[in-house]
Amino acid sequence: MATPILVWVPTFTLFGILIALGVMEWGSLPIPIFLRFGVGVFLIVAGNVVVWSEAAKFGVAQTGGAKGSLRTRGMYRYSRNPQYVADIAMIIGWMMLCASSGAALVGLAGIIVLIAAPFAEEPWLKEQYGSAFKDYKAKVRRFI
Q1: Which residue from 14, 32, 53, 88 puts its CA 20 to 30 A from 47's CA?
Q2: For residues 5-28, average pLDDT
Q3: What pTM was computed for the model?
Q4: DSSP, residue by residue, 29-50
Q5: Cα torsion through 48, 51, 56, 61, rounded to 10
Q6: Nearest to residue 107, comparing CAs of 5, 2, 31?
Q7: DSSP 26
Q8: Is there a contact between 93 and 43 (Cβ–Cβ < 8 Å)?
Q9: Is 142 helix (H, G, I), strand (E, B) or coil?
């Protein structure tokens, strides 16, 4: 019961703070327009496509930490953590688009947390799925 709260509240809080800081300090960093609106927007859109398509396949409960089946298809064929990779892409995209120093600082902290999260999850996955996870882990990279 607590796991979804521990997953979703910090996630939406982080993204809410990033959006607020980005809007409040819009354009405070000297990032070229073509990077902001070209690369930044692309990363935001691509990240959202991956996150929400995989969350739809998983279901909101399992995406939020509930026990389910070991997912090895879709984007999980290429990365053991495609949703984290996509979240990182969205954060980088937003940091570029809004060109805000505050959003950049909070975004970097968020990226560090997203990089660390799989290391905390993997012991649980090993316990839940045993040799299936061990075999999957041997075949598929953690990130990209």
Answers
A1: 32
A2: 90
A3: 0.90
A4: S---HHIIIIIIHHHHHHHHHH
A5: -130
A6: 31
A7: T
A8: yes
A9: coil
